[in-house]
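Q:
My hope is that you can spare some time for a protein that puzzles me. I hope you can help me see how the letters and the tokens relate. Thank you; the sequence and its tokens follow:
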Amino acid sequence: MTSQRHLLVGAALIMRMYTDTNVFVDESCEMLDKIQPEAFEPSKTSMMVVSQKRVPFDPTGIVMDGVAVEQISEMKLVGFTFDSKMRWGAMVDRAARKARTRLAALRKLSGLLDARNLKTMYMMFVRSTMEYGSVLYMGAADSHLAKLDRVQASAERMCGFKMESLGSRRDAAAFSLAVKMLCGKCRGVLNDFTPQLYHIPECTNSTRNSTRSNSLTGLQVQSHITTKSLDVTRRGFTGAIPRIFAKLPQPWIRFGALKGWHRIEARCKRLLLSQDMTVEVKTSDAQ
């Protein structure tokens, strides 16, 4: 009976929200006009419904100051492109197009600059456009992220240099964000995503040969990925942090947990950025 009552109350609130939307918009516009005239231009106002459903909510009928509000599937805010399904494909495609345009301009200068200067120009003007907000869109599909990799591969062939992969740089950026969270330097709701570490004991003789035993031991990041998690969440920051910490040597993780995570940030990023993943572990730091 209680669940039915909650269901009825929720349905009533949804209906009221839908029927009173125009009233709310009109009252908000009137209030803003008193505070700051011409704060909103109805003809330039748009709306976007964010949903993973095949048939999302239909907001048709919302008007502002007598003008119907246009519904869009993509929205650009402060350099980020948000799509209606929050899969970051539009953001990655935009970054790839911008990087290709700048790479074409750099190709015209390839005959005037040596390899060292070309590499510097690429890092400053081309790669930077593909790494803006990379921690957010690292959950995009591999088919979209491959477009960025092809831009870097073209630059390497044209300029004659070799760079660390963009995927490893996204992992390093995600690790830096995790370090800030663990050090308490983040604000607001971002602290809710702070990685939680727990200790995995070593396998005993009875479970060492078991196919179900976990190959990871020591301090590891607890995974919040479930069978119901979206693919973009599995590939994104939440799903990537346990995988990133699993690449790090246990002496470094124990040292960071005891002495401060900022003291191991630089060496861990060098490890993540190295292509051969062969960085000597300084056991003296863990003592």
Summary: Residues 182-286 form one domain.
